[in-house]
């Protein structure tokens, strides 16, 4: 009715679900109780999903976050999210409510359109980006993307050089592994290989973000909100890499000594290399 949402039964198994129609960046939420009633929710969980079937709970400080709700029917309790949610569906799940009333909620969601370029990979394909070396600085590389998959193994990114040098980002048993191989161990004996693993259970069909930043010999590798910083002892400056990046697989199988060699099966979103929108470029050319 006009008073807001109030389920027939007030128990822990109720929720209010919203379909925003498309993926949206949500930055804040606000709640009230039922209009002119003694029905209000004192605490609730917020869940989100792209599909309406696979749900994730909003977390803060690495733990599931219970929002403080209302203390009466009419005051608005507004909550600015510490980090925005990108999703199409939202679920408000009441945990506690006024003991002298029932579950009652009026809600508002704040946010804006989320600009997104998505490409799907079927486990047999890869996207190759060849760029003009004259336009590139050899000392700075920034690659960012989001991915989601149900497969626990697959190549996300590969770049190779003439003498066996290569950089590979690979999903292995649900964890992301960044492998930097300096190929020629005679000239780089002290630091022939760097292998860093981040994340776990990344094959959960939710979006995960990846950022690789390389400035001189400093490398930052970030998965979701976890960053690993390392120095590549100088030799990383001299990686002899071709001006070609492949996403989703290795163009010539068996060319490199990668662990699984499985192509990626899932979706990539908003792939950027040094500010270039790779998916948009692929669509237009």
TrEMBL record:
<comment type="similarity">
    <text>Belongs to the neurexin family.</text>
</comment>
<feature type="domain" description="F5/8 type C">
    <location>
        <begin position="1"/>
        <end position="112"/>
    </location>
</feature>
<dbReference type="InterPro" id="IPR013320">
    <property type="entry name" value="ConA-like_dom_sf"/>
</dbReference>
<dbReference type="InterPro" id="IPR050372">
    <property type="entry name" value="Neurexin-related_CASP"/>
</dbReference>
<dbReference type="InterPro" id="IPR001791">
    <property type="entry name" value="Laminin_G"/>
</dbReference>
<dbReference type="Pfam" id="PF02210">
    <property type="entry name" value="Laminin_G_2"/>
</dbReference>
<dbReference type="GO" id="GO:0016020">
    <property type="term" value="C:membrane"/>
</dbReference>
<dbReference type="InterPro" id="IPR008979">
    <property type="entry name" value="Galactose-bd-like_sf"/>
</dbReference>
<keyword id="KW-1133">Transmembrane helix</keyword>
<dbReference type="Pfam" id="PF00754">
    <property type="entry name" value="F5_F8_type_C"/>
</dbReference>
<keyword id="KW-0732">Signal</keyword>
<protein>
    <submittedName>
        <fullName>Contactin-associated protein-like 4</fullName>
    </submittedName>
</protein>
<keyword id="KW-0245">EGF-like domain</keyword>
<feature type="domain" description="Laminin G">
    <location>
        <begin position="118"/>
        <end position="285"/>
    </location>
</feature>
<keyword id="KW-0812">Transmembrane</keyword>
<dbReference type="InterPro" id="IPR000421">
    <property type="entry name" value="FA58C"/>
</dbReference>
<keyword id="KW-0472">Membrane</keyword>
